[in-house]
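In response to a reviewer's request, we include the raw inputs and outputs for one of the modeled complexes. The two entities were modeled together in a single run.
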Amino acid sequence: MKSIAFGQYYPSNSIMHRLDPRMKIIMGILYIVTCFLCKNVITFGILALSALLLIIISKIPIKIVLRSIKAIIFIMIFTAILNIFWTKGEDYELLLSWRFINIYSSGLYNAAFIVIRIVSMIIGTGIFLTYTTTPIQLTDGLEQLLSPLKVLKVPVHEFAMMMTIALRFIPTIIEETEKIMAAQKARGADFSNGSLVKRAKALIPVLIPLFISSFRRAGELATAMTCRCYRGGKGRTRLNVLRFSFKDFVALFLVIAFGTGIVLLNIYAPGYTM
Amino acid sequence: MSKLTVENVSFIYSAGTPFEVKALDGVSVNIEANRITGIIGHTGSGKSTLVQMFNGLIRPTEGRILLDGEDIWADAKKISAVRYRVGLVMQYPEYQLFEETVEADIAYGPKNMGLDEAEITQRVIESAKFVGLEEQDLKKSPFDLSGGQKRRAAIAGIMAMRPEVLVLDEPSAGLDPAGKKSIFEGIRKYAEATGAAVIIVSHSMDDMAKYCEDIIVMSHSRVAMTGKRNEIFSRGDELEAIGLGVPQMTYLMRLLAQRGINLPQDIFTVDDAEAAIIELFGGAK
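The model returned the following structure tokens for the whole complex.
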């Protein structure tokens, strides 16, 4: 259970860790958009390099980043294969033809592009958001970024608080699950053998106690918060006030420049275009 | 031959990572049938880890666990059979209740064992009787019971498997004195009726003194002392050095002795103390 990759925050003191979480959210979104703007060999090459650069800047061990990529390796291979076999490009070189299978050079390009795009997106969101920003910073940043929506009566603070609480309780619930599973195993529950239906049924004695304790915990937490005079976001001040600094704007400028550069290269660079 | 033997067992959590923790370090103990054994130790001394080894929830990194002289891990596929023979009641067992009725919940273990309907019904009634649950409680939802009753229902769920070794991790934690008493009485009844080896983990020296015959003291992932109840609790200074204590009545007797009142020092329970004090005044009960 502990292997579930969550709360992937990796403590370090890189420049990326010290950026304002609001800015990192914006940069993360811009970076993902840029991933979709790439169209040809040169821009995708630059994108791959930029992902590598992000890892280096943020001082996250490459091993840890690879672990998160491993989680989606199946989807990546699947989309790559689909692209190889199903791209029809009569204008392009036919590399292989066997019965109904035709592989064009454009298919190979597309497959490579898609893989680079997915990997860069994963690395981008990881570096800008989950690896370098604690979950609490992240929800704080999100709350403040979305705070203009309060005018439209969107309960931004409440959503952010819900998210913070959810994140906080994930490890607790994992621990609780392990405990209940051990207890039911002691009564002869078998979670690893038998048919799929049987194994799914074996989880009922785990899920019911888990739900019940989650409700209980939620009730207790609500009482505890009320005792400390929590009454929603109105008039609430914060312990750590977020302030943009010069380096935040420099970072934002770099990401925007990167995106613009990609768009320009799409137009001027030659070669296969997706 | 002992019922359950722990032979030089060590256990390391997260072995091979920087977060490595040695939870048990060369632990050897013998547990006898027909006796109630208490395990005491401060938080983090390795008690709970040891207890989860008895029924194979945790596999030792080193050493062996022998049940009736046979290594329980000799065939890892048969470990679930060991779990029926060694019943483990974990901390706060009431959080594991899940069935619609108390009856069905108690029957969960025996059902997993593959017993027939008549046998299961009989065992459910029998184990409910051990822990003092009323017949009408069996039809209720476990979530409508009081805290103490829930705890007793959960313990009955393990007793219904009729284990030869019954292990209870802090069975009385968080209960009021009456609830505590009924739980321990239930455990004692089970022990007397079945001749099982019973192991109780607790922080309460008073409960230990009252219900256990043998005591195992754990400290810093090792066994610090083992012996008969009287032997262990007469070593008060050593227990205090470990960060534990002696039963309240033993303290009282020691304090009285310091003030020059001559009372026997091998007193561990309120009943013993009462008898000794009455005797001091020359009266008979």
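As requested, we also summarize the result in words. Residues 156-186 of chain A form the longest helix (31 residues). DSSP finds eleven helices and two strands in chain A.
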